[in-house]
Amino acid sequence: MEALKKELKERIINVLNLEDITVDDIQDTDALFGDGLGLDSIDALELIVLLDKEYGIKLADPKQGKEIFQSIETMAQYIAQNRTKL
Protein backbone atom coordinates (compact mmCIF):
# COMPACT_ATOMS: atom_id res chain seq x y z
CA MET A 1 0.00 0.00 0.00
CA GLU A 2 2.89 2.40 0.73
CA ALA A 3 4.26 1.88 -2.79
CA LEU A 4 0.83 2.64 -4.25
CA LYS A 5 0.57 5.85 -2.20
CA LYS A 6 4.00 7.03 -3.37
CA GLU A 7 3.13 6.17 -6.97
CA LEU A 8 -0.16 8.09 -6.66
CA LYS A 9 1.62 11.17 -5.29
CA GLU A 10 4.12 11.08 -8.17
CA ARG A 11 1.39 10.68 -10.78
CA ILE A 12 -0.74 13.46 -9.30
CA ILE A 13 2.24 15.83 -9.27
CA ASN A 14 3.03 14.98 -12.91
CA VAL A 15 -0.54 14.95 -14.28
CA LEU A 16 -1.52 18.20 -12.55
CA ASN A 17 1.86 19.91 -13.16
CA LEU A 18 2.33 20.73 -9.48
CA GLU A 19 5.83 22.13 -9.97
CA ASP A 20 6.34 23.49 -6.44
CA ILE A 21 5.28 20.29 -4.69
CA THR A 22 7.28 17.14 -3.98
CA VAL A 23 6.13 13.69 -2.90
CA ASP A 24 7.35 14.50 0.62
CA ASP A 25 5.11 17.60 0.76
CA ILE A 26 1.94 15.49 0.45
CA GLN A 27 0.85 13.63 3.56
CA ASP A 28 -1.30 10.51 3.11
CA THR A 29 -4.20 12.05 5.04
CA ASP A 30 -3.98 15.63 3.71
CA ALA A 31 -7.12 16.89 2.00
CA LEU A 32 -6.62 17.03 -1.77
CA PHE A 33 -9.18 19.81 -2.24
CA GLY A 34 -9.82 22.99 -0.28
CA ASP A 35 -7.38 23.75 2.53
CA GLY A 36 -5.14 20.76 1.83
CA LEU A 37 -3.46 20.50 -1.56
CA GLY A 38 -5.88 23.09 -2.95
CA LEU A 39 -7.04 21.20 -6.03
CA ASP A 40 -10.10 22.37 -7.97
CA SER A 41 -12.83 20.87 -10.18
CA ILE A 42 -10.60 20.80 -13.27
CA ASP A 43 -8.05 18.83 -11.26
CA ALA A 44 -10.83 16.43 -10.24
CA LEU A 45 -11.49 15.70 -13.92
CA GLU A 46 -7.79 15.01 -14.42
CA LEU A 47 -7.85 12.59 -11.47
CA ILE A 48 -10.84 10.77 -12.99
CA VAL A 49 -8.89 10.38 -16.25
CA LEU A 50 -5.84 9.19 -14.27
CA LEU A 51 -7.90 6.49 -12.53
CA ASP A 52 -9.23 5.30 -15.87
CA LYS A 53 -5.93 5.32 -17.79
CA GLU A 54 -3.59 4.03 -15.10
CA TYR A 55 -5.80 1.73 -13.04
CA GLY A 56 -8.75 0.83 -15.29
CA ILE A 57 -11.27 2.41 -12.93
CA LYS A 58 -14.22 4.26 -14.45
CA LEU A 59 -16.25 6.56 -12.21
CA ALA A 60 -19.85 6.76 -13.36
CA ASP A 61 -21.12 8.86 -10.47
CA PRO A 62 -19.37 12.21 -9.77
CA LYS A 63 -20.45 11.93 -6.12
CA GLN A 64 -18.10 8.95 -5.83
CA GLY A 65 -15.23 11.30 -6.59
CA LYS A 66 -15.88 13.35 -3.45
CA GLU A 67 -15.42 10.25 -1.31
CA ILE A 68 -12.53 8.78 -3.27
CA PHE A 69 -10.54 12.02 -3.69
CA GLN A 70 -10.56 13.05 -0.04
CA SER A 71 -6.89 12.14 0.42
CA ILE A 72 -4.09 9.95 -0.91
CA GLU A 73 -5.15 7.40 1.70
CA THR A 74 -8.75 7.17 0.42
CA MET A 75 -7.61 7.08 -3.22
CA ALA A 76 -5.11 4.28 -2.55
CA GLN A 77 -7.72 2.21 -0.69
CA TYR A 78 -10.23 2.61 -3.52
CA ILE A 79 -7.65 1.74 -6.18
CA ALA A 80 -6.46 -1.32 -4.26
CA GLN A 81 -10.04 -2.62 -4.09
CA ASN A 82 -11.20 -1.70 -7.61
CA ARG A 83 -8.27 -1.62 -10.04
CA THR A 84 -8.48 -3.65 -13.21
CA LYS A 85 -4.99 -2.73 -14.48
CA LEU A 86 -1.74 -3.54 -12.71
UniProtKB/TrEMBL annotation:
Identify the Gene3D superfamilies for this entry: ACP-like
Q: Key word tRNA processing present in the record?
A: no
Q: Which InterPro entries match?
A: ACP-like_sf (IPR036736), PP-bd_ACP (IPR009081), Ppantetheine_attach_site (IPR006162)
Ranges for domain Carrier come to 1-83
Pfam families given in the database record = PP-binding (PF00550)
Q: Specify the domain of life of the species encoding this protein.
A: Bacteria
Keyword terms: Phosphopantetheine, Phosphoprotein
The yes or no answer to whether the keyword Phosphoprotein is present is yes
Q: Which NCBIfam families match?
A: PRK09184.1
Record's protein name:
Acyl carrier protein
- According to its UniProt entry, this protein's organism is Paenimyroides marinum
